[in-house]
Amino acid sequence: MQSPPSPRLLLLLALALAALLAFLTSTPTAALHHYAASSSSPARALLVPQQPRTQHRLTLRAVREDASSATPANDDDRYPLQDAVLLPDWEVLVLLHPAAPESSSNATCAFPGGAASPARSLGRMPASGRQAYTCAMPRPERRRNKPFRAPRLVTTTTAPSSQSQSQQSRWPRPEMLLRWSGRLAYDAVALPGTGDVLVLAKGVNPRQGVNRPASDVQCVYYRHNATGDGVVASLPAATSAQQVFRCPAPPATAGDLRVTLAVAGGEPIPSMATYSPPTAASGGGSSSAHNKNSKKVVMCACTMVRDVAKFLREWVVYHAAVGVDRFLIYDNGSQDDLEGEVRQLSAAGFDVSTHVWPWPKTQEAGFSYAAAAHRDSCEWMAFVDVDEFIFSPRWAESSRPSKSSMLRSVVAAVEPDVGQVSLGCKDFGPSGQTKHPEEGVTQGYACRRRAEERHKSVVRLDALEPSLMNSIHHFEVRPEFRWERSRQARVNHYKYQAWDEFKVKFRRRVSTYVADWTDPVNHGSKDRTPGLGFEAVEPEGWAHRFCEVEDTLLRDATRRWFGVGFTSRPS
């Protein structure tokens, strides 16, 4: 019969088990490994600050496990690089390498299951220069088992067909499609003169007003190629607000990279964002001879639009006459002739540029991007929609508009410590109109609500908080600056137009934090229309609603300045 273990042996076993348990549950130090800038440096695994009682080794597996790009192995294969993401309403966005050949209008999304759909060119992305295309996912592909596979973009170039087919045959096999509905780093821009990089990402700060501390967020720069993912640098974020994260730049010799975000204790999120060292053209756009924005001007106007071509001329001509020097149009997927209208305005001498912005419901991030990217080319920037016109009743009796004494006088009148001027809004109703007035909105709608509604702002770009936090209507300014409400000017908001125009709003709103018109939530919100439900059904008597005050001040002024229908040029 075997004798029981001695007390001494039991004690030694207990001490050994306690030591092992203490080792396994100890908290690792919050060490962060930095990586050499040289492209010849070997890529190593990255350790990020961890949460207590966990020991987690960060890899880049999660970044690309459902991505749709690959870096070719040789120069002849350098063009196939592409990313693809599934947007709402079964729309697929495809981004090509900046150096990919320009295609003709005949581009197609070829899906792995054999289905295909026409691809529409959006132009080049403003920061990366990547060519953007959208296409619809065919119904047969929607019925396939998830996860969905990314399409390949097949384009017709000026190259011989045999050469084009050879190039297409070397494209990487389609991988899994990124999902807009999940967490995603979707864009990035290097800011000239600051040494900073803005990374735009969904899902890190998932709720309005709840922002993760910047100390919890790491900016991860890496290379993605056929041999695997290699981390080049990981740096702590400087700011974290909404979908915008300000990051330090990677080492200067790193060159073009991918960039994503990692929350302490977690894997990096999927990414289609790229980083390139800043150039003089950072923040540039397209469709205008003035898109390089080399000269700094006093007043810019920025707006995000979709299918507003027929409204744009009136908005630009009017605001240019009262003091706006430059117009920045962020195009959120227009399918009308916006480009043609911008070309005509540019040819007429107006400084107008379009900037591709395909990301749905990201208006706040888009405005943050614009404020940072154009800081060196604009002193002040007005963030107003194309149905909003800045106006002062003091201008009503002027025989002609003035670039120097109207809108500029509004910002010239404030003290040096004012970083933002707030303008109250007057909301105009349909004014009896049953269709879009041929003479334009300022001359066609002349009856409004009595109450003053929420404001819009003109901001001094160098006064903004580094976080670029905004609520569309206004930005956060640095502590040494303040905001002031203008007593001179207001915004005429032609909000409730003829029903055929107003119902277009039901497609999708652009703000991240405002419910779409068809979402059955927040019925009493100021973002809703009084008396209107969740469907695009014309209420009885719509043409005569929201008419409490007859207001013809701007109508009469624009008739005097431009004639009826803005057919003449301002003098």
Strands, helices and their partners?
Blueprint: H1 7-25, H2 61-64, E1 82-87, E2 91-96, E3 107-110, E4 116-124, E5 131-136, H3 139-142, E6 152-155, H4 161-169, E7 178-179, E8 184-191, E9 196-202, E10 217-225, E11 228-236, E12 239-241, E13 244-248, E14 257-263, E15 274-275, E16 297-305, H5 309-322, E17 326-331, H6 338-347, E18 352-356, H7 363-373, E19 378-383, E20 388-391, H8 407-412, E21 418-428, H9 441-444, E22 447-460, E23 482-485, E24 490-493, H10 499-502, E25 549-550, H11 553-562
Parallel strand pairs: 1-7, 16-17, 16-19, 17-18, 21-23, 21-24
Antiparallel strand pairs: 1-2, 2-5, 3-4, 3-6, 4-5, 8-9, 9-13, 10-11, 10-14, 12-13, 14-15, 19-22, 20-24, 21-22, 22-25
CATH architecture of the largest domain, by name, is Alpha-Beta Complex
The end-to-end distance, rounded to whole angstroms, is 114 Å
Low-confidence stretches: 23-57, 65-79, 158-171, 281-291
Q: State the secondary-structure class.
A: alpha+beta
Enzyme class: transferase
Pfam families: Glyco_transf_92 (PF01697)
Subcellular location: Membrane
Organism: Panicum hallii
